[in-house]
Amino acid sequence: MSSDIAMTNAPVAADDAAVAGGMARSAAAVEAVLETLLPAPRGHHARVLEAMRYATFAGGKRLRPYLVLEGSKLFGVPDARALRAAAAIEVLHTYSLVHDDLPAMDDDDLRRGRPTTHRQFDEATAILAGDGLLTIAFEILAGPETHPSGDVRARLVSRLAKAAGGEGMIGGQMMDIEAPNHSFGEAEVILLQRMKTGALFEFAAEAGPLLAEAPEADQQRMRDYARALGLAFQIADDLIDATSSAEAAGKSVGKDAAQGKATFISIHGIEKAKAEAQNLAQQAVAALTPYGHAADELRALPTFLLDRAS
Amino acid sequence: MSSDIAMTNAPVAADDAAVAGGMARSAAAVEAVLETLLPAPRGHHARVLEAMRYATFAGGKRLRPYLVLEGSKLFGVPDARALRAAAAIEVLHTYSLVHDDLPAMDDDDLRRGRPTTHRQFDEATAILAGDGLLTIAFEILAGPETHPSGDVRARLVSRLAKAAGGEGMIGGQMMDIEAPNHSFGEAEVILLQRMKTGALFEFAAEAGPLLAEAPEADQQRMRDYARALGLAFQIADDLIDATSSAEAAGKSVGKDAAQGKATFISIHGIEKAKAEAQNLAQQAVAALTPYGHAADELRALPTFLLDRAS
Asked: Which of A105, A219, A130, A207 is nearest to B131 (CA)?
């Protein structure tokens, strides 16, 4: 299924169906690993362990794990290692959703068509469950099963912490909360999105070369890919927020405009935002030039993400 | 200044004044390191970085860093390494205070005599600041300046994550929230406290031998010390809650009884709780037997902590 914003000139040898299939397989694999990594609910603290699982096993595309696994394939990383890095980034992403949904933050009742964690449990449990997911992300990365080299494991921890921290994802969320008090231009919107979602995308894409101890140039290429992909993904998300129904999106929509937040769409309008997304998709693909057919699914991913917003 | 619950038979060669002096020196040293490690507020996300600093630079005894630094001295760990581990555990402890104080949790307005972070800023910022402090704890531990060996750094990350996670501190906080719905006996109160505060004490005490790559037996002894110390500390805290004024304690008091939470005091009464604290202090001291005079301040620490509650 192609759309009016699908790319026409990029060297893509995989289609949306191939990406959807690969993504479904990687989601199933990472969920199986998460099943073994998250503690089983027991004892008088079972409630927080249940909430950690409720938030994690909520469906979703598992896009970040997919990036980790596809990036790892390019560099010959064994599946068992790649899956642990994929699991770590997914629980970290899940924590960010749990905390962002809280009443004091975005105050969302619905996430992927189900009650958000604080609606299903309560606020205190949701705060603690998010804290627990953030914490276990680092425990997973640092565990000896992730890589035989402690240096590699420590580097993964450092990079993920930087991507997710006050100068990364958390800073981006703060900037997002501050947005209605400012009139952000395009530069600020790009910075916000790069911090809020791009930093984690970049870590997901560089995890493969990091696990393979590949040269810094490869890590940089994968980050370049992810940076462009992340912005394209954000524009797609903004398009869904601006044009979809809550039922179709599986979450609350129309909130950006209601809150007066600057987005690519509020700055440029829908058509120019779509064109910019296509431009970013081409930039992402260009970063993968050295990797031949092994990178075909990663090349097809930007179009896949934009198609769902068309 | 000695108290009616000070120990009389333990081989303590340091007094409260020595501990107070050592603690003040270690607090100053760890605060200087934290000053350089926490990001300087800047940009449109400055608010969360400010809140991270507000919560961190709030005074306090810096008891966990003191344990890291004293434990590190026993095993000859260079100061620069020990100070990074001490800084990591202190920001992690600080995050737990920020989140525990939130309206959905303990709903405290006052912490160390100042407005809590969500009162000084707002709830969203406090949630994010806590998340940021938790995240940077792992970034600090994993950084190459913490130890030349990646294996050691990854092990520190693993141990801290386990101590702070859903089966450690977070699980203990969940159990504490659930407490009013149950009638916990002594075994449950001990488990709760061991998870909620003991796990982090144990990590603080074992960080020294971990950084020194000392034998597991040394790590175990330091954990044994910290486990007994942690329970004694908790009883001291309960005594303050039961008997002090808010002004003297620098935080809200009398909440345990108001919330119907089981504590050592509600189970055993004040006098028996004091006796148990003294017993625990002697257990802590006994674990340090192999370490001679180098451990004198650690031996004096339990009495110091109990004296402040007398």
From this structure: A130
Torsion, Cα of A111, A112, A114, A116 (10° steps)? -20
Interchain CB distance below 8 Å, B170 and A128:
yes
Tokens of A153: 């494991």
Distance CA A57, CA B23 (A): 45
pTM: 0.93
Residue B103 · residue B62 · CB < 8 Å? no
DSSP label at B40?
Answer: P
Q: Name the one residue in this structure whose structure tokens are 């993904």.
A: A233
Cβ-based neighbours of A134, under 8 Å, separated by 6 or more: A91, A92, A95, A164, B131, B134, B135
CA dihedral A8, A9, A13, A15 (to 10 degrees): -20
Q: Does A49 touch chain B (CB under 8 A)?
A: yes
Count CB pairs under 8 A between chains A and B: 186
At B103 the three-state DSSP class reads coil
Alpha helices in chain B (DSSP H): 16-37, 46-56, 63-74, 79-100, 117-120, 123-142, 150-164, 169-178, 186-193, 199-211, 216-243, 246-249, 255-258, 264-268, 270-287, 296-307
**C-alpha torsion sign, points A204, A205, A208, A211:** negative
Contact B158 A178 (CB under 8 A): no
Tens-digit pLDDT profile for chain B (310 aa)? 344 444 444 455 678 899 999 999 999 999 999 999 999 999 999 999 999 999 999 998 999 999 999 999 999 999 999 999 999 999 999 999 999 999 999 999 999 899 999 999 999 999 999 999 999 999 999 999 999 999 999 999 999 999 999 999 999 999 999 988 888 999 999 999 999 999 999 999 999 999 999 999 999 999 999 999 999 998 988 888 888 765 555 556 566 666 777 888 888 899 999 999 999 999 999 999 999 999 999 999 999 999 877 6
Q: CB of B177 within 8 Å of any CB in chain A?
A: yes
Q: Do A157 and B142 touch (CB under 8 A)?
A: yes
Strand partners, A111: A114
ipTM of the assembly?
A: 0.93
> d(Cα A66, Cα A73) in Å, to the nearest integer?
11
Domains of chain A in sequence order: 16-307 (1.10.600.10)
